[in-house]
Specification:
Length: 280
Protein backbone atom coordinates (compact mmCIF):
# COMPACT_ATOMS: atom_id res chain seq x y z
CA UNK A 1 0.00 0.00 0.00
CA UNK A 2 1.13 3.54 -0.83
CA UNK A 3 4.17 2.11 -2.54
CA UNK A 4 4.91 3.50 -5.98
CA UNK A 5 7.58 3.01 -8.61
CA UNK A 6 9.32 6.32 -9.08
CA UNK A 7 10.31 7.51 -12.60
CA UNK A 8 13.85 6.42 -12.08
CA UNK A 9 12.72 3.05 -10.78
CA UNK A 10 13.33 3.95 -7.15
CA UNK A 11 10.55 2.85 -4.81
CA UNK A 12 9.14 5.70 -2.77
CA UNK A 13 6.67 5.68 0.05
CA UNK A 14 3.68 7.98 -0.06
CA UNK A 15 3.85 9.73 3.29
CA UNK A 16 1.11 11.03 5.58
CA UNK A 17 -2.21 10.63 3.76
CA UNK A 18 -2.81 6.91 3.41
CA UNK A 19 -6.16 5.63 2.20
CA UNK A 20 -7.34 5.04 5.75
CA UNK A 21 -6.59 8.59 6.79
CA UNK A 22 -8.42 10.03 3.81
CA UNK A 23 -11.38 7.80 4.51
CA UNK A 24 -11.46 8.93 8.10
CA UNK A 25 -11.29 12.60 7.17
CA UNK A 26 -14.15 12.07 4.69
CA UNK A 27 -16.19 10.25 7.29
CA UNK A 28 -15.58 12.97 9.85
CA UNK A 29 -16.76 15.62 7.41
CA UNK A 30 -19.83 13.56 6.49
CA UNK A 31 -20.65 13.09 10.18
CA UNK A 32 -20.44 16.82 10.74
CA UNK A 33 -22.87 17.39 7.86
CA UNK A 34 -25.13 14.60 9.10
CA UNK A 35 -25.50 16.35 12.45
CA UNK A 36 -26.58 19.54 10.74
CA UNK A 37 -28.97 17.67 8.45
CA UNK A 38 -30.29 15.59 11.35
CA UNK A 39 -29.63 12.27 9.66
CA UNK A 40 -29.33 10.33 12.91
CA UNK A 41 -32.14 8.20 14.26
CA UNK A 42 -32.59 6.18 17.40
CA UNK A 43 -33.74 2.61 17.43
CA UNK A 44 -35.03 1.16 20.66
CA UNK A 45 -34.46 -2.34 21.98
CA UNK A 46 -36.84 -3.60 24.65
CA UNK A 47 -35.63 -4.91 28.01
CA UNK A 48 -37.87 -7.43 29.72
CA UNK A 49 -38.45 -8.73 33.20
CA UNK A 50 -36.92 -12.21 33.33
CA UNK A 51 -39.93 -13.78 35.04
CA UNK A 52 -43.01 -11.89 33.86
CA UNK A 53 -41.55 -10.93 30.46
CA UNK A 54 -43.12 -7.51 30.94
CA UNK A 55 -41.32 -4.67 29.20
CA UNK A 56 -39.27 -2.74 31.76
CA UNK A 57 -37.28 -0.43 29.52
CA UNK A 58 -35.69 0.46 26.22
CA UNK A 59 -32.08 0.92 25.23
CA UNK A 60 -31.66 3.73 22.72
CA UNK A 61 -29.22 2.75 19.94
CA UNK A 62 -28.11 5.32 17.41
CA UNK A 63 -28.12 4.76 13.65
CA UNK A 64 -27.14 6.98 10.78
CA UNK A 65 -29.62 7.26 7.95
CA UNK A 66 -26.94 7.83 5.33
CA UNK A 67 -28.26 9.40 2.11
CA UNK A 68 -26.22 7.05 -0.10
CA UNK A 69 -25.33 4.05 2.06
CA UNK A 70 -28.60 3.47 3.89
CA UNK A 71 -28.99 2.81 7.58
CA UNK A 72 -25.58 2.51 9.22
CA UNK A 73 -25.02 0.84 12.61
CA UNK A 74 -22.94 2.64 15.25
CA UNK A 75 -20.02 0.31 14.61
CA UNK A 76 -19.55 2.10 11.29
CA UNK A 77 -19.19 5.64 12.63
CA UNK A 78 -19.22 5.99 16.42
CA UNK A 79 -15.44 5.46 16.74
CA UNK A 80 -14.82 8.35 14.37
CA UNK A 81 -17.20 10.55 16.37
CA UNK A 82 -15.39 9.48 19.54
CA UNK A 83 -11.95 10.26 18.13
CA UNK A 84 -13.07 13.75 17.19
CA UNK A 85 -15.16 16.13 19.25
CA UNK A 86 -18.26 15.17 17.31
CA UNK A 87 -19.34 12.69 19.95
CA UNK A 88 -20.24 15.67 22.15
CA UNK A 89 -22.99 17.15 19.94
CA UNK A 90 -24.02 13.67 18.74
CA UNK A 91 -24.19 12.35 22.31
CA UNK A 92 -26.16 15.40 23.43
CA UNK A 93 -28.61 14.85 20.58
CA UNK A 94 -29.04 11.18 21.54
CA UNK A 95 -29.76 12.17 25.14
CA UNK A 96 -32.31 14.82 24.18
CA UNK A 97 -34.04 12.59 21.66
CA UNK A 98 -34.19 9.53 23.94
CA UNK A 99 -35.57 11.59 26.84
CA UNK A 100 -38.10 13.30 24.59
CA UNK A 101 -39.29 10.01 23.13
CA UNK A 102 -39.53 8.23 26.47
CA UNK A 103 -41.50 11.11 27.97
CA UNK A 104 -43.82 11.16 24.95
CA UNK A 105 -44.45 7.44 25.42
CA UNK A 106 -45.47 8.06 29.02
CA UNK A 107 -42.42 6.70 30.84
CA UNK A 108 -43.18 8.81 33.92
CA UNK A 109 -46.64 7.38 34.45
CA UNK A 110 -45.96 3.89 33.11
CA UNK A 111 -42.68 3.41 34.89
CA UNK A 112 -40.42 2.07 32.16
CA UNK A 113 -36.85 3.29 31.73
CA UNK A 114 -34.78 4.51 28.80
CA UNK A 115 -31.08 3.68 28.67
CA UNK A 116 -28.58 5.84 26.82
CA UNK A 117 -25.00 4.88 25.97
CA UNK A 118 -22.39 7.42 27.02
CA UNK A 119 -18.86 7.63 25.59
CA UNK A 120 -15.77 8.37 27.64
CA UNK A 121 -15.37 11.82 26.10
CA UNK A 122 -18.91 12.79 27.03
CA UNK A 123 -18.56 11.49 30.57
CA UNK A 124 -15.22 13.27 31.03
CA UNK A 125 -16.58 16.59 29.85
CA UNK A 126 -17.11 19.10 32.64
CA UNK A 127 -20.53 20.04 31.22
CA UNK A 128 -21.90 16.51 31.03
CA UNK A 129 -24.19 16.68 34.07
CA UNK A 130 -25.53 19.97 32.72
CA UNK A 131 -26.27 18.37 29.34
CA UNK A 132 -28.16 15.58 31.09
CA UNK A 133 -30.06 18.03 33.27
CA UNK A 134 -31.08 20.04 30.22
CA UNK A 135 -32.35 16.95 28.39
CA UNK A 136 -34.43 16.07 31.45
CA UNK A 137 -35.80 19.56 31.91
CA UNK A 138 -36.66 20.03 28.23
CA UNK A 139 -38.42 16.67 27.98
CA UNK A 140 -40.04 16.55 31.39
CA UNK A 141 -38.74 13.00 31.83
CA UNK A 142 -38.57 11.86 35.45
CA UNK A 143 -34.80 11.51 36.11
CA UNK A 144 -35.40 8.12 37.73
CA UNK A 145 -36.56 6.84 34.32
CA UNK A 146 -33.20 7.62 32.70
CA UNK A 147 -30.31 5.15 32.87
CA UNK A 148 -26.86 6.14 31.62
CA UNK A 149 -24.80 3.21 30.32
CA UNK A 150 -21.06 3.47 30.91
CA UNK A 151 -18.40 0.85 30.34
CA UNK A 152 -16.02 -0.30 33.04
CA UNK A 153 -13.07 1.40 31.38
CA UNK A 154 -14.84 4.77 31.45
CA UNK A 155 -15.58 4.52 35.14
CA UNK A 156 -12.36 2.90 36.30
CA UNK A 157 -9.77 4.81 34.26
CA UNK A 158 -9.73 7.76 36.62
CA UNK A 159 -11.76 6.58 39.60
CA UNK A 160 -11.55 9.81 41.58
CA UNK A 161 -12.78 11.94 38.67
CA UNK A 162 -15.45 9.35 37.82
CA UNK A 163 -16.70 9.32 41.39
CA UNK A 164 -17.16 13.08 41.26
CA UNK A 165 -19.00 12.94 37.95
CA UNK A 166 -21.19 10.05 39.13
CA UNK A 167 -22.08 11.99 42.27
CA UNK A 168 -23.24 14.95 40.16
CA UNK A 169 -25.35 12.65 38.00
CA UNK A 170 -26.75 10.95 41.08
CA UNK A 171 -27.80 14.32 42.41
CA UNK A 172 -29.94 14.73 39.31
CA UNK A 173 -31.65 11.46 40.16
CA UNK A 174 -30.54 9.48 37.11
CA UNK A 175 -29.28 5.92 37.43
CA UNK A 176 -26.13 4.29 36.13
CA UNK A 177 -25.55 0.97 34.40
CA UNK A 178 -22.18 -0.66 33.82
CA UNK A 179 -22.34 -1.87 30.20
CA UNK A 180 -20.53 -4.88 28.70
CA UNK A 181 -19.67 -6.03 32.19
CA UNK A 182 -16.97 -8.66 32.46
CA UNK A 183 -15.06 -7.63 29.35
CA UNK A 184 -12.98 -4.84 30.89
CA UNK A 185 -10.76 -4.64 33.92
CA UNK A 186 -12.99 -4.24 36.89
CA UNK A 187 -11.64 -3.61 40.32
CA UNK A 188 -13.95 -5.14 42.86
CA UNK A 189 -13.10 -2.62 45.55
CA UNK A 190 -13.77 0.30 43.21
CA UNK A 191 -16.98 -1.27 42.06
CA UNK A 192 -18.12 -1.31 45.65
CA UNK A 193 -17.45 2.42 46.04
CA UNK A 194 -19.12 3.52 42.81
CA UNK A 195 -22.81 4.41 42.85
CA UNK A 196 -23.88 1.94 40.17
CA UNK A 197 -27.44 0.66 39.89
CA UNK A 198 -27.29 -1.94 37.12
CA UNK A 199 -24.76 -4.41 35.77
CA UNK A 200 -25.20 -5.48 32.16
CA UNK A 201 -23.59 -8.85 31.59
CA UNK A 202 -21.85 -8.78 28.24
CA UNK A 203 -23.37 -10.90 25.53
CA UNK A 204 -20.15 -12.91 25.08
CA UNK A 205 -20.89 -14.71 28.39
CA UNK A 206 -24.50 -15.26 27.42
CA UNK A 207 -23.55 -16.65 24.04
CA UNK A 208 -20.86 -18.92 25.45
CA UNK A 209 -23.28 -20.34 28.00
CA UNK A 210 -24.41 -23.03 25.57
CA UNK A 211 -21.16 -23.51 23.68
CA UNK A 212 -18.07 -25.58 24.43
CA UNK A 213 -17.23 -23.17 27.28
CA UNK A 214 -20.68 -23.59 28.76
CA UNK A 215 -19.66 -24.66 32.24
CA UNK A 216 -17.23 -21.82 32.88
CA UNK A 217 -19.57 -19.20 31.38
CA UNK A 218 -22.35 -20.34 33.66
CA UNK A 219 -20.10 -20.11 36.69
CA UNK A 220 -19.04 -16.60 35.68
CA UNK A 221 -22.60 -15.41 35.11
CA UNK A 222 -23.58 -16.82 38.50
CA UNK A 223 -20.71 -14.95 40.15
CA UNK A 224 -21.62 -11.69 38.41
CA UNK A 225 -25.22 -12.01 39.58
CA UNK A 226 -24.15 -12.72 43.16
CA UNK A 227 -21.71 -9.83 43.07
CA UNK A 228 -24.30 -7.41 41.67
CA UNK A 229 -27.04 -8.39 44.08
CA UNK A 230 -24.62 -8.26 47.00
CA UNK A 231 -23.86 -4.66 46.04
CA UNK A 232 -27.58 -3.83 45.60
CA UNK A 233 -27.37 -3.69 41.83
CA UNK A 234 -29.80 -5.19 39.36
CA UNK A 235 -28.58 -7.43 36.57
CA UNK A 236 -29.50 -7.24 32.91
CA UNK A 237 -28.18 -9.89 30.52
CA UNK A 238 -27.42 -8.76 26.97
CA UNK A 239 -27.56 -10.68 23.72
CA UNK A 240 -30.16 -13.29 24.65
CA UNK A 241 -30.91 -15.16 21.44
CA UNK A 242 -32.37 -18.51 22.47
CA UNK A 243 -34.99 -19.80 24.87
CA UNK A 244 -32.31 -22.04 26.44
CA UNK A 245 -30.30 -18.93 27.31
CA UNK A 246 -33.44 -17.28 28.65
CA UNK A 247 -34.17 -20.25 30.93
CA UNK A 248 -30.59 -20.41 32.17
CA UNK A 249 -30.37 -16.67 32.90
CA UNK A 250 -33.59 -16.85 34.82
CA UNK A 251 -32.27 -19.79 36.82
CA UNK A 252 -29.03 -17.91 37.53
CA UNK A 253 -31.01 -14.98 38.97
CA UNK A 254 -30.74 -12.24 36.33
CA UNK A 255 -33.40 -9.55 36.70
CA UNK A 256 -33.90 -8.39 33.12
CA UNK A 257 -33.06 -9.63 29.65
CA UNK A 258 -32.26 -7.94 26.38
CA UNK A 259 -31.68 -9.68 23.09
CA UNK A 260 -32.95 -10.70 19.69
CA UNK A 261 -35.05 -13.49 21.23
CA UNK A 262 -37.27 -10.92 22.92
CA UNK A 263 -36.93 -7.98 20.55
CA UNK A 264 -34.50 -6.56 18.04
CA UNK A 265 -33.71 -2.86 18.15
CA UNK A 266 -36.69 -1.24 16.40
CA UNK A 267 -37.53 2.13 14.88
CA UNK A 268 -39.55 4.29 17.27
CA UNK A 269 -42.94 3.50 15.75
CA UNK A 270 -42.49 -0.25 16.13
CA UNK A 271 -40.83 0.03 19.53
CA UNK A 272 -43.83 1.97 20.78
CA UNK A 273 -46.01 -1.07 20.03
CA UNK A 274 -44.04 -3.11 22.61
CA UNK A 275 -45.64 -0.95 25.30
CA UNK A 276 -49.11 -2.16 24.44
CA UNK A 277 -48.75 -5.70 23.18
CA UNK A 278 -51.88 -7.00 21.48
CA UNK A 279 -53.96 -9.19 23.78
CA UNK A 280 -53.07 -12.82 23.16
P1 LIG B 1 -24.17 -1.91 23.47
O1 LIG B 1 -24.47 -0.70 24.25
O2 LIG B 1 -23.58 -3.06 24.20
O3 LIG B 1 -25.52 -2.28 22.74
C1 LIG B 1 -25.95 -3.58 22.47
C2 LIG B 1 -25.61 -3.98 21.06
O4 LIG B 1 -25.88 -5.38 20.92
C3 LIG B 1 -26.48 -3.31 19.99
O5 LIG B 1 -25.71 -3.19 18.79
C4 LIG B 1 -27.58 -4.33 19.78
O6 LIG B 1 -28.20 -4.24 18.51
C5 LIG B 1 -26.80 -5.60 19.90
N1 LIG B 1 -27.66 -6.71 20.30
C6 LIG B 1 -28.76 -6.67 21.07
N2 LIG B 1 -29.27 -7.89 21.25
C7 LIG B 1 -28.48 -8.75 20.57
C8 LIG B 1 -28.52 -10.18 20.35
O7 LIG B 1 -29.37 -10.90 20.84
N3 LIG B 1 -27.51 -10.69 19.59
C9 LIG B 1 -26.54 -9.93 19.03
N4 LIG B 1 -25.61 -10.52 18.30
N5 LIG B 1 -26.49 -8.58 19.22
C10 LIG B 1 -27.45 -8.00 19.97
P2 LIG B 1 -25.61 -1.80 18.01
O8 LIG B 1 -26.93 -1.11 17.99
O9 LIG B 1 -24.93 -2.08 16.71
O10 LIG B 1 -24.66 -0.95 18.93
C11 LIG B 1 -23.32 -1.33 19.13
C12 LIG B 1 -22.65 -0.47 20.17
O11 LIG B 1 -22.57 0.88 19.72
C13 LIG B 1 -23.41 -0.39 21.49
O12 LIG B 1 -23.16 -1.56 22.25
C14 LIG B 1 -22.81 0.86 22.09
O13 LIG B 1 -21.58 0.57 22.68
C15 LIG B 1 -22.60 1.71 20.85
N6 LIG B 1 -23.69 2.68 20.73
C16 LIG B 1 -24.94 2.52 20.25
N7 LIG B 1 -25.66 3.66 20.33
C17 LIG B 1 -24.84 4.58 20.91
C18 LIG B 1 -25.00 5.95 21.28
O14 LIG B 1 -26.05 6.58 21.13
N8 LIG B 1 -23.91 6.57 21.85
C19 LIG B 1 -22.74 5.89 22.06
N9 LIG B 1 -21.73 6.56 22.63
N10 LIG B 1 -22.56 4.61 21.74
C20 LIG B 1 -23.60 3.95 21.16
MG1 LIG C 1 -25.37 -0.26 25.90
MG1 LIG D 1 -23.75 -3.62 26.07
MG1 LIG E 1 -21.78 -4.18 23.76
Amino acid sequence: RAKHEGKNGVRTFQPAMGDETTERVDLERDLRDALVREEFVLHYQGQFDVRTQALVGFEALVRWQHPAQGLLPPGRFIHVAEDSELILPLGAWVLREACRQAAAWGANARGFTVSVNVSAKQFDHADFAQVVRQALTDSGLDPHRLILELTESVVLRDPAAAAGQLARLRELGVRIALDDFGTGHSSLSLLRQMPIDFLKIDRSFVQDSHSADAASSRVLIGIMVTLAHGLQMQVTAEGVETSEQHALLRELGCDALQGFLLSRPLPAGQARALLDPPAA
